[in-house]
Amino acid sequence: MKTNRCNLNQTGPTVYYHSFRACTCAFVRTRVMRRFAACAIAWCLAVPVRSQTDATEYYVVNNNGAHIYGVGIEAVAGDAIVLKLPGGGSQRFRKGTYRSGHCPKPEALKTAESFIRDKKPDAALAALDDAQKRYGILGWGGRISLLEGRIHAAQDRPQEAEAAYRRGLEQTDDSDATRARIAVALVATLIDRDRGEEAERLLHGISTEDPEIGTYVFNTRGRLLAAQGLKREAVLQYLKTILLFPKAGAVRRDAYREVIALLEELGDDRYLVFEKQRKEDYPQ
Fold this sequence. Notes:
The protein is mainly alpha-helical. The chain has helices at residues 13-46, 52-57, 107-117, 121-154, 158-170, 178-192, 196-203, 211-227, 231-244, 250-265, 271-281, and strands at 59-62, 67-69, 72-76, 80-84, 90-93, 98-102. The chain has 11 helices and 6 strands.
């Protein structure tokens, strides 16, 4: 039986023949592998490598849902987006040819947030206006509109606040966590403007998965229903806060207080049960 291996039990010319052949093949294979490795290393060094930051922070989602990545991005006139590509060059996306653009948090937005912390609302609004023009279609429009609306609301400009919040809803979708916060802020503005029915309709479309958002939604529904004289329906909304969010803290304690008051007004003795439970959950 022919073999390429060296048989230690063999003697004579045959063993030397097979040994020489095996060693020669091994040598050739080694040289080929070395040459292949050298070429692979040279190829890797020659090809520009896109960093993780570039690959994840600058991109456009086209109408088909595909992600096109780049190393920089810019919003230009006409709501178009220019994506800078690795190795030079760029790709332009006209309005209507993309779903969204994305970039890291812009410095203009960071500046605006610092003005807000320093209680400089006028400077903050100016910075937010600049950020909206440059980054509104690059994934930051919702956040910018939310901040603009909050500033207007704090300065007793409910009409401007409502306009900012509605723009923010247009700039976000259900996958954006900011959307629920914008909706909540708009609900508060509508209630302040005595537009409770409109606020209630909006509440039904807000996701309640986040505890902070969920407790606000349920408590606000309860408040609106109670104002309409629908006390039992209001109790059910407050109970959602109590049962679904056991770690909600102050807002959950408020929900207990409303449940107890409403049941007592209805002449329902079960308010005593909730009063006892409230004292157990919040002894102080």
